[in-house]
Amino acid sequence: VPYSIKISEDEVMSKFDFILSFQHDLDLNEFSCTINASVDLLNVNTVCILTQRLKTMLHQQFTSFDCTPNKPIYELSLVLPNEQYLMQSLNNTQVSFASPLTCIHHEFVYQVVKHPQKLAVELDEQSLTYAELLYYVQVLSLALLNECHVFPGEVVIGIMGIEMAGGVYCPLSPRDPQHRLYALTEQAQSHIVLIHHLTKTKFNNDIVSLDMDSILSINKLNTNMDYNCLSSVIMKSEEIAYTIFTSGSTGTPKAVQLTQQNCINSILAFVRIDALYEYDVTIQIASATFDAHILEIVGSLTCGATIVMLHPQGESVSSAFIKILMQFVAKSCRIWNFYGPAEATLGTSCQLIDVTSHMRDLPIGKPLPRYICLVLNKFLQPVMNQEGGGLLVGGLGVFAGYVGRDDLTAKALLEIDGKLFYRTGDLVTMDNNGLLHYQGRKDHQIKLHGQRIELGEIERCLLNNTSISACIVMKWNDDYLVAYVQSSHINEDQLQQHCQSHLPQHMIPSIFVILDKLPLNQNGKIDRKQLPSPDFSLSTLLSSNKSDIPFNQFEERIHTIWCQVLHADENHIAGTTSFFSVGGHSLLFIELYHHYQSVFNFDNQALSIAPFLQQPTIFQHSQLLQTVIINNVKTTQWYTLHINEGNASFAQERIFLDEQVRFSSDIAIYNELFTLQVVQGSLSLDRLSQALRYVLNKHKILRTSLIFSNDDGVLKQCITDMHRTFTITMNQIFENENELQNIIYQTTINPNLFDLSTGHVFHAEILRHQIVLDGNENNSNESIMNCDVLLIAFHHAASDRASSSIFFNDLCLAYNTNTISMEDDESLQYIDYSIHEHLIDMTTSREFWYLQLEGYNWESRLLLPVDRHRMSNDHRSSSASVTQISFDNDISQSFLDYASIHHVTPFQLGLTILYAFLFKLTHGESDLCISCLNANRYKTELHNIMGMFVSTLPYRVQLDPHWSFDELVECVQENCLSILEHSHYPLQHILANVHTDQTNISFLEAMYDFITISSHSDELSLVDSSLKQVSFEQSFEVAKFDFMLTFIYNPILENNRLAFRLTCSHDLFDEITVTEIGRRLEYCFQQLFSTNENMNRMDTCFISISKFDVILPEESQEMEDIIFCRQSHIMNEGMFR
Q1: Beta-carbon contacts of residue 611 (< 8 Å; ≥ 6 apart)
Q2: What CA dihedral angle connects 904, 323, 950 and 1067, to 10 degrees?
Q3: What is the mean pLDDT of the chain?
Q4: Closest CA to 31 of 11, 10, 61, 3
Q5: Beta-bridge partner residues of 420
Q6: DSSP structure string for 461-496
């Protein structure tokens, strides 16, 4: 019986996933090979490549001139000829450089002679030309008599002075603990330490030091010295130019030695690819302990560029930063992605970034000139394309060894075919274009915020504490070092203090997990998989994130504002702590931003909220806000215009048009209700009426009419005096909960509740409870008794979600203080906002939205699993199919922790989940666009005004199925931040720009929102009475959209703090379908955030979103039962002819 059946010329049915068969033709004495594979697993191209690899291997074994049966099988290569050609492209050593100079200071002096008056270095208002810099370098170099390793303060002069004197430069951070400074000074075998006035206290008299301030002082110059005579020190290219420390796995940092030849060749490689040019202006941003600062300083000075120095406390570059950067620089600007360990000098490979592409996996590119890269497996054999292997680097950049550690040097260096290579320890792959892609590490070395860290060095430091018997340090996500410590008598504070006194700041763990015993595997080694997840809760992060950097006076002001907004202990928030790590969420962040606007007097045009979100720490906010002060930015204040008529706002136009076009006039869709039941005490009806009239008088939008003019086609608003005759309605009675719910629902969809044309946009009604009426017949019209319900309703054209809190705050104030109506003619009203809004220059926003939606298919529809379809000209009903899912506290906390760690808002994280879910639910639709709501109160003056400000905007993402969830989060965050700058641009203008209307746009039928419920927002206190909001039955909900997902976060609940509600139009979805969609979304959510050991949690960093599973576990089990289990009625025998 054959293993496969040939159905046709192009189709073969295979019985197994993979079949390899050899056939021997006795007549021709030939062998042939056939591979049959299941198309469920392998496509045709993959099988063809496998066949070619097999042929290549057989060719080596039986036809190659050096074939031998004793050859180890690992030497058999599967690499194809085209892949061998690509590997040859990783050898870039044939390039030659024109420069005959071999030392750093020779190149520098050459540039001085070439253009002496050109700016060499700039910092704020200070600057030095090349000639001036050479002078100070000469002064310093003549003061250095012997070879020395120096830790400079005035970095540029220091570096070049050391090189000019024939010394060896070695940088050290003044922020390191003193005992570490001594240890590194001793290890580097330093003769002299170069200091200045800020670092004098770092060393005592045991260390020989030179004070740069005194050396460079004009008044203290030695008159007997000839500073115009260049150094006569003879340097050879193989002599050491600089030494830099990297983290060591044994617990001791490794001192990497780089020669003059290493440095010059590496710099010339950058010049050769035009990444460094004499007309460049280089921003010096790398810290002194990061070898990139050598390129920025020495590289710039040896090619004739200008250096601009910056102050410390910068940020590492991310793809988000690149996107923002490209908005402000010229279109001709190029951005390079460079890769290279310190042991290979300044760089090994590079890739020019295509800023127009949507590539998120940035390759590290191809080797620089004079470098060669090899990608080998553990047997030192070349690997195939797309196969991971270890990266080895050769060429003129390979270092001269570690200071005093010949054993480590021998392990790090390897000779292949007479050439020296450095084992980087990095894992890479090579793609079909010959580009290298970084995949990770072979060992436990990591990179955190750009700094290379050997976790073993931290572990060794901890083990030096006698109270610790075992420990292990791990990197969590991209932001935290977590130390697991085995000890029975030590606490976190002691561990923190121990690390602070022995390690640099970037190597101190964020969290310490103390265990009685670390989990071990069967081999007696620590089992990393069984280590408990660290607690990223607020209290833990606060206690572990104490910064030793003091606040200045300006930062103290910002710190105080944070404490007010967060209601936090003033001693806990460090300057480097993210706002979202200390209990902040999107609503609080908006409140924080409004505080900033009020205190520092600026508006969103001067400084929007987006950069604050991107840089969410006190130190970063301080720098942003100082730009407002330095540039003397003043807000453009909006004042009342004292008008009663004017054009409607953009938001009012949208609501008015939407109500007319999308829905039947028989059903109201924009009646916004609040129902409050008296649960304690009673209310005075007269006093309540007076308080409501006060609020109506204060907020004129609640008595403003909207009238469409047929003459000029403009929607206009007009303020009326309806508040003078306003009365509370009292004509409905309910006996039980069902009757109450029915009244609420009927009021919600009542098309006659409001009349926009007359200004009747507010409604107040008392729903009487029958039992209360029976027992209080005499006082039924004077008091609102226990169990009665106060129903407050607004038309959405007059009020948004933020307006409700303003309304109830004013109502409570008026009722509790018995306030009488007062006119305030100078207060800004909503009608004033409408006029000011129309005067804003929206040119930039118009261009932004055009580009945002360029290429979008306006005819496309989300392929949701609907039960019915609706014609494009059909009016929607308000009937809804609803499901709600709540999550336990563990999952809720996991969700919030993820948002905090990745510096995203819960809104952005929820939106990312929806995108990933829709991608799977729609069978791979990658160009997704849905609507989201923006509060749009972008000026301080608008915070306390009632009205409709909310904007509905399209949030589009073009996702790559290969992205991980983390990468999708980053993309969504960037998109949300860019939209924030332009959220005031009206939807109707967005649609008009692309020449389409609002009647049949797919993204207007899919809506997302995230609601954070403020504390006690469902309760109202009026004098001695209390009212509590009546919960609304799901069956009575109104569907404004075909598909709406709302996340609800209520931090005051003891359990189920996070939930989502899926509200779909019953025109399209049955209740059971919506319930099933909800369960699938819940399952996706659990894959990301579940803490249950039985749940196969998804790796958000590496696993692509295409691996998201929307098939429920019971469905998977059912499929397995059907496919793999033999049923009793199926015959167990068969015959093949």
Answers
A1: 624
A2: -80
A3: 81
A4: 61
A5: 415
A6: HHHTSTT-SEEEEEEETTTEEEEEEE-SS--HHHHH
Q: Where are the alpha helices (DSSP H) in 78-207?
A: 81-88, 104-114, 130-143, 155-164, 178-187
Indicate if 955 and 1009 belong to the same structural domain: yes
Region of poorest pLDDT, from 470-484, 652-666, 778-792, 1090-1104: 1090-1104
Give the separation between CA 184 and CA 170, rounded to whole angstroms: 10
Q: Which of 1108, 898, 1085 is nearest to 476 (CA)?
A: 898
**491 and 571 within one domain:** no
User: Closest Cα partner for 91 from 363, 348, 444, 336?
Assistant: 348
Contact 498, 527 (CB under 8 A): no
pLDDT of 967-994, one tens digit each? 899 899 889 888 988 889 999 999 888 7
C-alpha to C-alpha distance for 644 and 907, rounded to whole angstroms:
38
**Distance separating the N- and C-terminal Cα atoms of the chain:** 9
1037's tokens:
């909900």
Which of 527, 542, 576 is at the close of a domain?
527
Contact 459, 485 (CB under 8 A): no
Residue 316 — pLDDT band, cuts 50, 70, 90? very low
The 10 Å Cβ neighbour count of residue 70 is: 4
Last residue of a domain, one of 52, 77, 102: 77
828 and 902 co-located in one domain: no
| Range of the structural domain that residue 479 is part of | 448-527
Query: Does one domain contain both 622 and 658?
Result: no
What's the structural domain count of the chain? 5
Tens digits of per-residue pLDDT, 382-419?
888 878 889 999 998 899 999 888 889 999 999 998 89
CATH number (domain holding residue 796)? 3.30.559.10
Task: Read off the amino acid at residue 300.
Answer: S
Domain identity same for 959 and 1087: yes
pLDDT at residue 311, rounded to an integer:
64
CATH of the domain at 452: 3.30.300.30
DSSP annotation string for 906-950: HHHHHHHHHHHHHHHHTTS--EEEEEEEE----SGGGTT--S---
More confident residue, 1101 or 185: 185
Q: Which of 994, 1006, 919, 996 is nearest to 958 (CA)?
A: 919
Rg (alpha carbons) of the chain, rounded to whole number: 36
- 347-380 pLDDT, tens digit each: 899 988 876 665 666 888 899 998 999 999 888 8
> Both tokens of residue 788?
């009665």
Task: Return the pLDDT at 998.
Answer: 58
483-531 pLDDT per residue, tens: 999 987 888 878 888 887 778 777 888 888 999 888 887 666 788 778 8
Determine how β-strand 336-339 pairs with β-strand 451-454.
Answer: unpaired
- 559 and 674 belong to one structural domain: no
Q: What is the pLDDT of residues 217-254, one digit of tens each?
A: 654 555 555 555 666 666 777 888 888 888 765 557 88
Residue 343 lies in a domain: no
Most confident of 424-438, 471-485, 686-700: 686-700
Average pLDDT over residues 30-35: 82
Q: In this structure, are 893 and 948 located in the same domain?
A: yes
6 with 12: CB under 8 angstroms? yes
The tokens for 412 are: 């790090």
Cα(171)–Cα(245) distance, integer angstroms: 8
Please indicate, yes or no, if residue 495 is contained in any of the structural domains.
Answer: yes
1060 with 1000, same domain: the answer is yes
For residue 539, tell me if it sits in a domain. Answer: no
What one-letter code names the amino acid at 589?
F
Edge-to-edge strands of the sheet including 645-647?
A: 645-647, 714-719, 704-709
Q: What is the model's pLDDT at position 222? A: 52
DSSP string covering 848-873, please?
HHHHHTTT--TT-------SS---TT
Q: Does residue 430 lie in a domain region?
A: no
